[in-house]
Design brief:
Number of domains: 2
Helix content: 25-40%
Strand order of the largest sheet: 3-4-2-1-7-9-10-8
Oligomer: single chain
Shape: globular
Strand content: 15-25%
Number of helices: 13
CATH superfamily of the largest domain: Acetylglutamate kinase-like
Largest sheet: 8 strands, mixed
Structural class: alpha/beta
CATH class of the largest domain: Alpha Beta
Bound molecules: aspartic acid, magnesium ion
CATH architecture of the largest domain: 3-Layer(aba) Sandwich
CATH topology of the largest domain: Carbamate kinase
């Protein structure tokens, strides 16, 4: 059996969904499990809605109506007015009405997961209904009963044993009946609350299913020809890799290459399942294959940009050195605030850390750190990572920019710039 993952860009409009069906049709006769993300920029819009609800701002209903309108416009292009999908989608959105009815009292991350998850619950309903309409037999699966997580909201930790058991119990029989369409990015807790697996987590979902079902491969269908050496949104003359090894792919995602979710590779590597990254506009094209013995040829350096970074430096209040015991306390506070370190550097009197800016987590971290330490920070920075770099590529990329931190090892250069 094969696992397919379609990201938000591939289902951003009616044309995308029609195209998805035509890609799937090419695989007639294969058992397919299809993981789908929220449509277009829906997750971002639902994040805005969550914030508006928690802050109780006036634009809350306006944002929500926009999200509904976007989906219903697409439905009208794809289905006759009397199709049951209209009610299914409306009923799914009602969950949000319930969630935002009363004043917020739960934690931000909990509320986030209950609201933001609706994006995938709706998109998969639409895709599954459309496949059936297009003559491809498909069943909609609520992933929350299969991918079990703890209750770390926004970053659900997968409980593998339980997940493997649920998936292997029911899914093979369903696959024998037709395609199974399910939500990326979501999980469920033992109390039946919804969790999410971290932004862009649908790739990870695909890899969890593939691992539990012993899939022949996972294909993630994207709006790029495969894995490129840099993001074409920011760089001209990018080159595509035909093959990559699992380890190079892990390194790239570790440094923030957004083409695959960082947790995706490990389960696939462990089960030796290849990951194909292919263009949904040209399904016959080879794309990039990530596999055990993938060949890494780097004619050009790999460039990874991470924006919206904070560089924070921590020093002790009494001019004492930053030593191991300080560091373990500092790391403890980072872990408690769920802030993940992208780069760090120590000197005698200070410890500098670069990480992604998430307002809530950042505020929490700052409050905790300030009780013991002196803290200074710069925000709105970019972290540039260059793998397999040449001297000139580093110079070119940082020309005219203020470098706030630089770290160079044999294969990888990292700079934080303003
Ligand atoms: N819809 C989620 C996001 O945009 C998950 C995904 O696309 O993989 O982060
Ligand atoms: Mg996405």
């Amino acid at each position: 059996m094969l696992v397919f993952k379609f990201g938000g860009a591939s289902v951003k409009d009616a044309g995308g969904i029609i195209n998805l069906a035509s890609v799937v049709k090419k695989y007639e006769g294969e058992q397919l499990l299809i993981v789908v993300s929220a449509m277009g920029k829906t997750t971002n819009a639902l994040e805005k809605l969550t914030k508006a609800y928690v802050d109780q701002t006036d634009d809350m209903h306006h944002i929500f109506n926009g999200i509904k309108q976007y989906h219903f416009d697409i439905l009208h292009e794809l289905f006759e007015n009397n199709h049951t999908i209209f009610d299914e989608v409306a009923n799914t959105f009602v969950e949000i009405d319930w969630a935002i009815e009363d004043a917020p009292h739960d934690s931000y991350d909990f509320i986030y997961d209950q609201i933001v998850s609706i994006g995938e619950l709706v998109s998969t309903r639409i895709v599954s209904a459309y496949l059936n309409k297009a003559g491809i037999k498909s069943q909609w699966l609520d992933v929350r009963g299969y991918i079990h997580t703890d209750n770390t909201y926004r970053e659900g930790l997968v409980q593998w044993d339980k997940t493997r058991e649920s998936i292997s119990k029911d899914i093979p029989a369903m696959l024998a009946e037709g395609a199974v369409v399910t939500q990326g990015f979501l999980g469920g807790t033992s109390e039946n609350f919804t969790t999410t697996l971290g932004r862009e987590g649908s790739d990870y979902t695909a890899s969890i299913f593939a691992s539990c079902l012993g899939a022949g491969s996972v294909t993630t269908w994207k709006d790029v020809p495969g894995i490129l050496n840099a993001d074409p949104k920011f760089f001209a003359n990018t080159v595509k890799f035909d093959e990559l090894s699992y380890s190079e792919a892990i390194e790239m995602t570790y440094y923030g290459a957004s083409v695959i979710h960082p947790k995706t590779i490990k389960p696939l590597q462990n089960a030796r399942i290849p990951l194909l990254v292919k263009p949904f506009t040209d399904p016959g094209a080879p794309g990039t294959v990530i596999k055990e013995d993938g060949i890494n040829k780097f004619e050009k350096p790999v460039i990874i940009l991470k924006q919206n970074q904070v560089l924070l430096s921590i020093s002790s209040k009494d001019y004492s050195f930053i030593t191991e015991d300080h560091l373990s306390e500092i790391f403890g506070l980072f872990a408690q605030s769920q802030v993940k370190v992208n780069v760090m550097q120590t000197s005698a009197l200070s410890f500098s850390v670069c990480f992604d800016f998430y307002e809530e987590r950042f505020e929490k971290l700052l409050t905790n750190l300030k009780q013991e330490f002196k803290v200074k920070y710069n925000s709105d920075l970019t972290l540039i990572t260059i793998r397999h770099y040449a001297e000139n590529s580093l110079k070119e990329l940082t020309a005219g920019k203020t470098i706030l931190l630089e770290q160079i090892s044999r294969n990888t250069a990292q700079v934080v710039v303003k």
